[in-house]
Amino acid sequence: MSRTVLPPSPPTLSPTRRRLAPLAFALFAAVLTLRTTDGLSASPARPNIVLVMADDMGWGETGYRGHPLLKTPHLDAMAVGGLRFERFYAGAPVCSPTRASVLTGRANDRSGVLSHGYALRLQEKTIAQALRSAGYVTGHFGKWHLNGLRGPGAPVLATDERHPGRFGFDEWVSVTNFFDLDPLMSRAGQIEEFTGDSSEIAVAEAVKFLEKHQAGGQPMFAVIWYGTPHSPFKALPDDKAPFSQLDENSANHYGELVAMDRSLGTLRQALRRLGIADNTLLVFCSDNGGLPRITPETVGGLRGNKGSVYEGGLRVPGIIEWPAIVKPRITHFPACTMDLFPTVADILGLPDDVLVRPVDGISLKPLLSGEIRERRQPIPFRFGSKAALVDHRYKLVTDNLERGEFQLYDLESDPQETNDLSAAQPDVFARLKQQLLAWNETVEASVAGRDYPKGRVTPPDPEPQSWYDTPAYQPYLPAWKTRWEFKPYLERRDKPKKTAKAKR
User: Fold this and answer.
1) Using one digit for the tens of pLDDT, what is the confidence trace for 412-469?
2) Residues with Cβ < 8 Å from 165, sequence gap 6 or more?
3) Which of 204, 228, 248, 401 could cysteine-pair with 260, CB 3.0–4.6 Å?
4) Domain termination residue (choose one: 426, 447, 468)
């Protein structure tokens, strides 16, 4: 449920045409069919596309991975019916950068999104823009976090220069950052107050979008970015009840995941009810690894958590479901959020210039109908001073790129990254180090704007700031200061700062 919150202040055919109609229909169907040599034969040319992403969900937080307490029946069903990745990676170990990688197919630093709360450059090209140009109707629902604003999720304002509409979304019901129970959201700039769990709200709005457009003849593209299970944790009482033996944060954390899984079931059921499930490419993943200080642990025994470039910070649940094309199975092929845009572009045969170059992702199109033995290029990561490179079974890691202190791990035999092989495998170590350093040089050029036609960043990257410190949100603060999700932040902001005692 939601309520609007006002801002302050057929023709008859001839016999001949009737005889020709079946032939015409057959020819039309043939035009709308892809016939490729890579296994995607007789597939609809323009599938509906739905990208779903959790917020801070760890690799180990699913039923199908044997979590000791959490049940995820709908996610498990999707995993059984689709392509389940054992090695799927977020584009970065924190939220905003991974979102940028989904939209651009590029490593986050290339697009200016260095960390959480950094803005996506207006010079970037997004998957939503490409699909809209290809005839899709596009919608974004949930967490945005690409407009350079930090703090808890607030409605994205219509005056925001980097709202979802500026990057190709026809419709959007969005917030700046994480959101939980009873959120305020923005419907294309109009603020609404919703009631209920945030995951169910985001899915409900996405389903309305699909219902609205499914009979209109246009293929549909929907992005659903949950705010779950990001802190602060606040689950419905019935959802957290099964975890009453846990501490309050852990109980609410897992309760949020219960609701998120239920909303995924609602989405998949809606696709079937609308008769579009078979020809819908549905992707589920998370934006980074799991959180620390949650019991039971969130990363399935991997090393590190959110913010780390070890496996626990980067490896996340990943599933692709497309009943008309994808054969249900488990794959150990390493894939990443940067691969999503190149994959969609390849499926649709979009021109090369829909992406800004260089592109760090690859097309997974051949993987959808059969296994790929080896990835043709490594998966690179850069986050602050940290960096990593995944090359098939091997992974190069550094916590300080400038100091050049690297470690090498064999992820097949040592997924927990406990045994540094840099001395034992000098040839592999040297090769991956050279590749990572060479790639890093190209990223530096991207950061400087060399990828764009003008060879520079324009307009300049804005500095990250909290939304409640911006002039645009000041008229709303008197009415919002008592809301549970905003109150702690606003109180800390307004608390008088202690002055240092004068020197004697």
Assistant:
1) 999 999 999 999 999 999 999 999 999 999 999 999 999 999 999 999 999 999 999 9
2) 172, 188
3) 228
4) 447
